[in-house]
User: What shape does this take?
Amino acid sequence: MAKKPTTHNDAAKPTAKVTPSDITGTDIGGESPQKASPVPNDAVLSLSFAEPQGSGGETRQIAGDEVATLTTQQGIPIADNQNTLKQGVRGPALLEDSHFREKMFHFDHERIPERVVHARGYGAHGFFELTDSLADVSRADIFQRIGERTPAFVRFSTVAGSKGSSDLARDVRGFAVKLYTQEGNWDLVGNNIPVFFIQDAIKFPDLVHAAKPEPDRDFPQAQTAHDNFWDFISLTPESFHMIMWTMSDRAIPRSLRTMEGFGVHTFRLVDAEGKSTFVKFHWKPKQGLQSVVWNEAVKINGADPDFHRRDLWEAINGGDFPEWELGVQLFNDAFADSFDFDVLDATKLIPEELIPVRIVGRLVLDRVVDNFFAETEQVAFCTQNVPPGIDFSNDPLLQGRNFSYLDTQIKRLGSPNFTHIPINAPKCPMAHFQQDGHMAMRNPAGRVNYEPNSWGATLGGPREDPVRGFTSFAESADGPKQRVRSESFADHYSQARQFFVSQTPIEQKHIGDALVFELSKVERPDIRSRTVSHLLNIDAMLAATVASGLGLALPDPAVAARKPISDLPASDRLSIVKNGPQSFKGRKLGILLSDGADAAVFRALLKAVDAEGAVYEVIAPKIAGVTLSDGVTVAAKHKIDGGPSVLFDAVAILLSTEGGELLSGDAAAKDFATDAFAHCKYLGFSAEAQPIFVKAGLVGDLDEACLPLTKAADAKAFIEACRSLRYWPRELKVDLDAATVA
Ligand code: HDD
Assistant: This one.
């Protein structure tokens, strides 16, 4: 018997969006209300990204809605998108099915090569606004007019992991800013750490090979805790300053919004007379600095691998626009000559105590992308993109980068016309004779495509402009061709020590813990020992702590190319804890609720959260939500198993008597409390939460950062306490390794 032909055209019918309140008849949402997405696209971007393919075509009514007709890329309307063309009902597929052929062809070619480093990233649009003119030192157009806004796109990233890796890897974060200035695109391609592992670009492929998964086994993914990385590092003493930073909590930021950004290298600002001033660029987050702790990072990676991108998406869509100040450290040759280190050495920073940071502008991110691939994936940063008024120094790392980035874009994007992609296109006029190539979208019009030509001003096309055009700083250079490292780059430990002694004791402990963790994953004892031999040149106590954590006999110190300076003064700006925001604004409270929880306390908590500029999410035994003591229902954002406390900055546990009894038998609820406690979070709780604390073994340990929420009036004080973000004294009581901290 022949089978009946089947179609699935019903699947094409749009379905109504189901919200939690549709299901539960909920009165209160399970999270802070989201504001509507704020800023519309500008004309260029909306034309290119926002218009769905074929949306300009025919429409027809489906279930009362006007719906565009699906077409092929050639614009041919499609009748059936569910079945290939067959000979007979159960027969073979036909070659003439051009719709199927085109659909598969395009799908098969959807991926482009991921970035060899910084593959996992997340971007957003915004603007830079000048708040202090730099016209005294630079002719750069972007630095002339106070109050003027320049469109910007920022892409944050991890370095080592592949595109699909998780956000909370211990890693450097990329902080790449594209500024669409009126005199061309300026790409400031920086990191959240002001120094780099290596001094010369020729070592970059070795560094990256060593950091990435080992080539025979292709693991570990997105982490440096393996032999190859530490082998390379322990053979490359210049990396130890950066290692101090990557082993610190800077490498596990709480949010992309709570990190600093740095241009790293010394650049030049050049004025209209050609006079140069050295400059280092800083992005300082208005949100304050904040990181997570390592045990929390490990668990966040499981609970929400998209923790950072989700946070940025939610903050921008919620109207809480992340903001950074642009700061510059300006200095001249005299300072450069007198400084203890070479300003061309990217493994060194200039302490802010020596050269203060002058704030000259602000960067605000106010719009998420319309399409991740079109914008975040295809954006192409190139360090060599600098407009007139900004120039390079001879930092050998920067010089090498200026070659590498353009080269990498042709591999990734496949065409020299990658500047025709809207995200990469300047927003100022362009005029040149470059033409053709793959995917050329904008070939110059007219007969003339060369210069000079004799076709006159109207037909002859653009001409160079010796006054307005980019002029390199006329630095003189002379000397023999040679492969050398300057003697002035030979100190590898002094600033590593300066960073370490600038940290608070808890931050120093975290650096020790991180080194022990990473080296405990290294299989070869000689690599562990060699690493510790370098630490001895940085800080004896740190070296002893790490050796003891590894059960290792203390080796001899590594031979230093130059004797380290041991008395560089501490710099407060290098610590995260000393630069915390003292505010819960922009942070997230997790509220674990059960049926019958006190409605007045819950409402007071929401009010206090809102007043602080923070947000909340509700966690409940069932995703349908709970009914409070006054009969009002509240939707849940998370079922308890999917909403662990690691996802929140602070937690509140509001339960009824029955709820407390019920949840005390639930492992996820106990973890919720023990993790919040172990991660030094502020914890508010109703008396009915006691059975959970009993089962979790926390009762005798609750400290002054565990605050009762018995009546509505307690809510405000609790949220105010949360401003400290963590209660660090607790860590010394809950961590075995704490015994080694002085
Ligand atoms: Fe790099 C990407 C930052 C040294 C070669 N780098 C890349 C990105 C950032 C940085 C943020 C991602 C850009 C994006 O979001 O698309 N890189 C740095 C910093 C460095 C540094 C702050 C040192 C101060 N990089 C560096 C060197 C080289 C490269 C020395 C090679 C000589 N970097 C690249 C690259 C990448 C890249 C291979 C990969 C993808 C891309 O450029 O677009 O060309």
Remarks:
- The domain at 587-724 is CATH 3.40.50.880 (Rossmann fold).
- The first strand starts at residue 59 and ends at 62.
